[in-house]
């Protein structure tokens, strides 16, 4: 992997959000170099930022801890990111998964990190200058793709950590339909959850919805090295 990345080449949004609507704010700031050190760091202040955001909006965040390196590795390992041309990350928080994705995508890949929490989105812009940080609702993937001139079926991979289990059923369904519509055939989505199907009826209902939407659905074994321990679903269109 390169020691540094010129963020404007592999990651910046070609549209630059110059004509962004009310939900899509201005570009993510000046381009800069994102070094390997930035992609590997887990800053204590990021943890504090996440905890603060959780205290203000617990349901939106879904947890008070950001994802561990082990969980990020488990998620990104399923996606073949080195081959991908268009990648979305949904619910980036303070960016542990963002960094893991950026370490693996190739130059020229269009990468979008979507985070609706303003403070967290600002933190992402500071940490990853030049990366397309979309401060908006990540369930509306069709709208986002339209805005970024990505054709339906033009997305290779999605990394999702939204608290889907806490969403109302109609929103869950709409979010999954949007994911299905934007992914290319064979395209993959990984998502994390802390809710075991074995215990939670909501998790079983979610699994049923995944099974009804995607050609392939797998749940990986639990990642214990995360607080709380988490499961990873992999789906393929
Ligand atoms: C469980 S946290 C995961 C954060 C980070 N990816 C990690 O793994 O540490 C979920 C994140 O999704 C964001 N989020 C929740 N609902 C969202 C939505 N509809 N659109 C965009 N972001 C959302 C929250 O603000 C929060 O940062």
Question: Can you describe what's shown?
Answer:
β3 (86-90), α5 (96-104) and β4 form a beta-alpha-beta unit. Helix content is 35%, strand content 19%. The chain has nine helices and nine strands. With 237 residues, it is of the alpha/beta class. It has helices spanning 36-40, 44-56, 58-61, 69-76, 96-104, 118-127, 141-147, 169-182, 201-213; strands at 4-6, 33-35, 86-90, 110-114, 132-134, 155-160, 183-193, 216-219, 231-236. It has one domain: Rossmann fold (3-Layer(aba) Sandwich), CATH 3.40.50.150.
Named CATH topology:
Rossmann fold
Give the name of the CATH architecture.
3-Layer(aba) Sandwich
Estimate nothing, just give the exact number of structural domains.
Answer: 1
Radius of gyration: 16 Å
Helix content: 25-40%
Count of helical segments? 9
Question: What keywords describe this structure?
Answer:
237 residues; alpha/beta; Rossmann fold; seven-stranded mixed β-sheet; two-stranded antiparallel ribbon; 9 helices; binds S-adenosylmethionine
Summarize the structure.
The protein is α/β, with parallel strands linked by helices and 237 residues long. The chain has helices at residues 36-40, 44-56, 58-61, 69-76, 96-104, 118-127, 141-147, 169-182, 201-213; strands at residues 4-6, 33-35, 86-90, 110-114, 132-134, 155-160, 183-193, 216-219, 231-236.
């Amino acid at each position: 992997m390169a020691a540094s990345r010129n963020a404007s080449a592999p990651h910046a949004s070609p549209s630059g959000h110059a004509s962004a609507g009310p939900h899509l704010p201005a570009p993510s700031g000046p381009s800069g170099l994102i070094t390997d050190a930035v992609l590997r760091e887990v800053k204590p202040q990021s943890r504090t930022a996440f905890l603060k955001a959780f205290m203000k909006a617990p349901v939106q965040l879904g947890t008070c801890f950001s994802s561990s390196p082990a969980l990020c590795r488990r998620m990104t390992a399923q996606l073949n990111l080195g081959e991908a041309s268009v990648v979305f990350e949904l619910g980036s928080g303070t960016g542990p998964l963002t960094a893991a994705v950026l370490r693996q995508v190739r130059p020229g890949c269009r990468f979008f990190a979507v985070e609706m929490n303003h403070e967290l989105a600002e933190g992402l812009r500071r940490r990853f200058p030049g990366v397309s940080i979309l401060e908006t609702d990540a369930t509306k993937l069709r709208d986002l793709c339209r805005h970024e001139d990505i054709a339906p079926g033009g997305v290779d991979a999605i990394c999702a950590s939204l608290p889907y289990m806490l969403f109302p059923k109609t929103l869950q369904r709409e979010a999954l339909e949007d994911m299905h519509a934007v992914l290319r055939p064979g395209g993959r989505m990984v998502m994390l959850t802390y809710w075991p199907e074995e215990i939670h009826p909501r998790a079983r209902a979610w699994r049923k919805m995944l099974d009804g939407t995607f050609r392939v659905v797998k749940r990986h074994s639990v990642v214990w090295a995360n607080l709380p321990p988490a499961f990873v679903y992999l789906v393929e269109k």
